[in-house]
Amino acid sequence: VRQHNIAVIAGDGIGIEVTASTLEVLRAVQKKVGGFELKFDELDYGSARYKAKGSYTPEGWLEHLRKFDAIFFGAVGDPDVPDHISLWDLILPMRQKFQQYVNVRPSAILPGIPARITNAQVGDLDWVIVRENTEGEYAGQGGRTHVGTPWETATEVSIFTRRGVERVMRFAFEIAQKRPRKLLTVVSKSNAQRYGLVLWDEVAELVSKDFPDVKWDKMLVDAMTVRMVSKPKSLDTIVTTNLHGDILSDLAAGVSGSIGIAHSSSLDPTRESPSLFEPVHGAAFDIMGKNLANPIAAIMSAAEMLRWLGENQAAEIVENACKTSIANGQTTGDLGGKLKTSEVTQVVLELI
Amino acid sequence: VRQHNIAVIAGDGIGIEVTASTLEVLRAVQKKVGGFELKFDELDYGSARYKAKGSYTPEGWLEHLRKFDAIFFGAVGDPDVPDHISLWDLILPMRQKFQQYVNVRPSAILPGIPARITNAQVGDLDWVIVRENTEGEYAGQGGRTHVGTPWETATEVSIFTRRGVERVMRFAFEIAQKRPRKLLTVVSKSNAQRYGLVLWDEVAELVSKDFPDVKWDKMLVDAMTVRMVSKPKSLDTIVTTNLHGDILSDLAAGVSGSIGIAHSSSLDPTRESPSLFEPVHGAAFDIMGKNLANPIAAIMSAAEMLRWLGENQAAEIVENACKTSIANGQTTGDLGGKLKTSEVTQVVLELI
Ligand SMILES: CC(C)[C@H](C(=O)O)[C@@H](O)C(=O)O
Ligand SMILES: CC(C)[C@H](C(=O)O)[C@@H](O)C(=O)O
């Protein structure tokens, strides 16, 4: 049997609830398909640990995590901790340290979920957003001086390296090349931001030469939002910077109606470090403990994880079970259904 | 008669066509209402000048412009010139030099324009986006080293000053306070960007204390896009940073279906320098010279200019004429109509 070691970080809030559902589903599909074994290591990293022990993680956590084949992540965020602390103590260091330089976020209008734009039906919107995930606007540099005085100045420094841009661009062209429409849109803001974003566009030009069969175009991020809501069919694969990818992938989930099922894979394509799989939603303390969270985003993330680990058959079974439950209207409130977290989990388990 | 001196920069592409329409309309309303006189100074700043003489503007242009009461701007951009050059040579220096620190962008679903989201009808979406317009992500600092080598690194430096944030925040709270719903949403990305964007949120907290009757909340820009497409009625006045304001205002125009009429006022509320009024659309070389451009965005910008100059009656007449033409379906192709630029202009002139 193929053995896969998975680090499980349920984290905070509903992250804990949807992770529990996901582990049940993973155990079920492993039993059903056979031939592989998932070994879960459940880690207590998160805000509860921070509040009890003063840190999100134990010493040496990144080196500990490095040994796993993949990381499953629930959510992080706590009303008692400023978000920029919780995120920079837990999720963002993993993206950088493990060089998870691509973040893949698919969006589609699925049967059973009504789209939120007037001109798109099932089949009309099927996008993959490839987001740069380690540098750019999330490089993390910057600072504040004269704090609290009228002379205070703060900076945020975006850093773009040619190697960093090139590797994610190449990944995106490859994805586009493998999809039926072979269509790629490169998004930047190179008119107002004339250093890193101009580099972004230049690298796109260069890399495109190696993919003569991919039709590609460039868009500015502001105009891109209009295109997404007005001409969804004109888009297929999209590649963009860290911040713009964050924004556009939420918008994509919004227009396709799929925010409750949006999932995210932070990949190190070299496979030197573990990749990370997580739902896009956050810790959502307002609905925590009420059995209301939609577990589908987390379960779909786990399906992507199975695919990354080479367990394609298991991945497909999980994904299809999720899609069937949605098409049948067996959903939580966010998708218009009446079921609880545990009931949706049960439906998926039965479909498996 | 009250005299107003207006600098007119038609600029490039369809900017030239819609500016011509706008001047006709302004002359007509001046005649109709009386009591004021607009003196237009038409300046040749733009890409044609750059290609002929090597610069977008003559020496001393900013000092020349400073003497006017307002600036009317068409559009800038030319296929032969990289956008980051044309914009940093013409439009962006004006915003900074004249401390036009607020950019006001209203969006509404108007009778006659079908919205692009499924859950909003006329009256359901009536937003004012207040965008910081001089610093933040458009500060203009940054650079590139090792250009063209594999070691190339580029930076973009966002700069936020406490004074800069406070003045735009205060302006936004005032706008919100004057509107019936007294509702303000402050948008940032203070979870991933932990210096300037955290300052942004802190200043919002402080300024809010002076406006106890304004109900306000904070949103992250990514989640904000979802809220805009899914709960449009929950929003009213919005204040955000330079880049996020750029993105969200295009999205607002996209969801309300009003991209063809979106206009933008870059204001120096101290009135020490001239403010600038322009349509949001660009030079659009693809439709240039075809009499296809929608002149309404430019004409609506001019109405805002009249209001800024204290000519409220004239402003209202122009605005109502635009809205009536739209409600009657007398529109250009982008709004689903069949009229040419000149025909729409004619309709507006007759309504005045
Ligand atoms: C939690 C936060 C740092 C994160 C981001 O902005 O990247 C989230 O919004 C996401 O999209 O994964
Ligand atoms: C032309 C460009 C610099 C500008 C911006 O990004 O501010 C435009 O998109 C706008 O929204 O006014």
Automatic annotation (TrEMBL), chains A, B:
Cofactor(s) this protein cannot do without:
Mg(2+); Mn(2+)
Task: Name the enzyme's class.
Answer: oxidoreductase
Chemical reaction(s) catalysed: (R)-malate + NAD(+) = pyruvate + CO2 + NADH
Boundaries of each Isopropylmalate dehydrogenase-like domain copy?
5-348
Question: What Enzyme Commission number does this protein have?
Answer: 1.1.1.83
Q: Which UniProt keywords apply?
A: Magnesium, Manganese, Metal-binding, NAD, Oxidoreductase
Record carries keyword tRNA-binding: no
Source species, domain of life: Eukaryota
Record carries keyword Oxidoreductase: yes
Question: Molecular function terms in GO for this entry?
Answer: D-malate dehydrogenase (decarboxylating) (NAD+) activity; magnesium ion binding; NAD binding
Family statement: Belongs to the isocitrate and isopropylmalate dehydrogenases family.
Q: What is this protein called?
A: D-malate dehydrogenase (decarboxylating)
